[in-house]
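As described in the Methods, two query proteins were run sequentially through the folding procedure within a single session, without resetting any intermediate state between them. The first query and its resulting structure tokens are shown here.
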Amino acid sequence: MRTVVEVDFPSPELARAALKAFETRGGKAEVNAGVEKNVLRIEITAGGFSALRARTTSALRDLKIISDALELKKGLKGGLNA
């Protein structure tokens, strides 16, 4: 079983930063990730549905944390009063 998650970022630099922060260890699933232009592409392959679901859920949770961190960083660039 296999799933692919593609996430568009505002710039290639942010997509590469997200890739760098993304955890590719997958336990019972194989995870491959890469960036093309401003798109982070994550491919997850597992032997069964339960493993695929678990790793996909973890990947989405990781992406949410990365997204929140990038938004926070973007907000801090304007200074503390931004």
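Immediately afterward, the second query was submitted; its sequence and tokens are:
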Amino acid sequence: MTPQQTASKYFLYARKSSENEDKQVASVPSQIEELRKLAQDYNLRIIDILTEEKSAKAPGRIVFNQMLQDIHEGKANGILCWKLDRLARNPVDGGNITWMLQQGVLQHIQTFQKGYFPTDNVLMMSVEFGMANQFILDLSLNTKRGQRAKADKGWLPHKPPIGYSNNKHNLPDLPPIYSDPYFFPIMKKIWNVLLEEKCSVEQIYERSFKLGLRTRSGNEFGRSSFYRMLRNPFYYGEFDWQGKRYKGVHEPMISKEEFDLAQDIIDGRVKQLNKRDGFAFRGLIRCGECGAAITSEHKTKQQKNGNVHHYTYYHCTKRIKRDCSQQLVRNDALDQQILDLLDKISIPLPFHQWVIKQLRTENETDEKESHNSKNLIYKNLESVKKRLDNLLSLRVSEEITTEEYSSKRNELIKEKERWESALKNTPRSNWIEEAEKVFDFAESAKKRFQEGDWQVKQSITAELSSNLRLQDQILDIPVEKNKAFLLGLAPEIKSLHNRFEPLQVVENIHSWEALYAQNNIWGLWVDKSRVSEPQRIQLVIPFYRRRYGKLEASLDCALPQKPIKEPDPPPNIINEAIRVKDFMAAHPDETCLSAAAKLNLPRKRISKLLTIANNLPPNLITELANCSNPKILRQMHVKHLLRLAQTSVS
């Protein structure tokens, strides 16, 4: 039986999924081109060309279902397609096609390789549909297995949150998920602001735009997306996958304790710093005698001559010890005591510029050393795993006894644990942000405290010390550990400036840098800190101690800031589709692949634009082509126009 003796009207159906299942299948325009030649060879009458870009692994394809309905209504009685798996990859659609062919509703299915008729053995068609369905099942199973294996290794099998990037091109010097060089510092600043200022989610959301946070496409974050981002455990080193919590091996942005504190702040379980009452130090100071909180109040005094004076006093609440003997203290007295301490830790601007440059230079060296250390550890871990596998093979083949296997396995397990511990304890190389923050504070805190309002003073005081004690009108201010070294360093640096500035003008910044490099307090402080607290993130590193004239330095090493890209005006997709259609009409011998190269467009986009231009009504195309309204152009997506074109054909 020939096709001419059966069906007289055919639907040409071309489908390609954008998913992995069809990445080896010809494109839709290529299918149409080949099937048209096949129709000419067999003298088949095509009444309509139907295209669809959707997976066939589940029922519910709009164009396919409409095609079956039209065949039931008698509009056509044959189907022309590339292969049977273009029609169905699931048993529901495959069963419908088989049943329609057996009942005679569908007279003929012609593929590029074979024809199918109602009188044929149905077993062969069922086998082909079954193979297509089994391919989808195996693909899903293999994909899920690969994702589980990746999660077990500690890598998120999905796109990471903002601040991290996937190693899409498998570069050898980068892990599968690495810190984004632009977004990682911004997200780090957002977490620091949230933890230090204890502000609300709405406040930190507004601040994030000023810090430069955007989506990967350059748009602003929505509130709900930003809120979910702050709930993501990925930032402290864990992630959720398929209902299970995994321990990640990527570089964490914050610690687990900091993440838990951030959640308490977001949920309102941590009291925010005072933002309304105008008292800079309320909630920050404790009484040195009884340990109760120090409160504050405003006092107004009106003199007989009409002058009005306003005062602010701080005093013990006496909630712990009712007969506490501590007296009132004026706000001005506390301001002066904090200013005196800020003066002791302040550093000159030239030194601040020099130290930031040196920090960044040393950070690059640390990152290279850390990367080399991790690569060595990974190499040894792989070696241990291979030896464990070989040991198991020897035991399975009974070349060694059970006792020998157990003894050697225990040794290898211990060696593996040692390397895993070494990997876990590899020094982190992200200390640069905290170091820059400390020196920025030392350079600008005094001036900001003098010129700022009560909120600025409150923020600086909270950052300076977290254990303020007031006794006998004297404020005890134990400086935070990460800033305590400034008490010894700042006087040395200022003394250096005071000795040289009045007597000798040091005009060249290189001369100042040479003087800084000769100061030994750096090495002494760093060596001491590394011996006493080896696990703490180092804020300062050993600096060059070269003689004057041998220090190569420049202030032009500031890290460039990535500019925020303004959104381009939305293009008119209809005009683009018309251009592609005209090009293909003027060059009938061109394929989609060659046209894509000449028009500088992706091959898949060429086929979509052709479908839009060929199937949309002419009057609608004319109206949309002349549209210049930006709101309408932003809503004019390819997928919407493609759906509209498919509906028009139906």
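The CA atoms of residues 354 and 513 lie 7 Å apart. We note this only descriptively and draw no conclusion about the first query from it.
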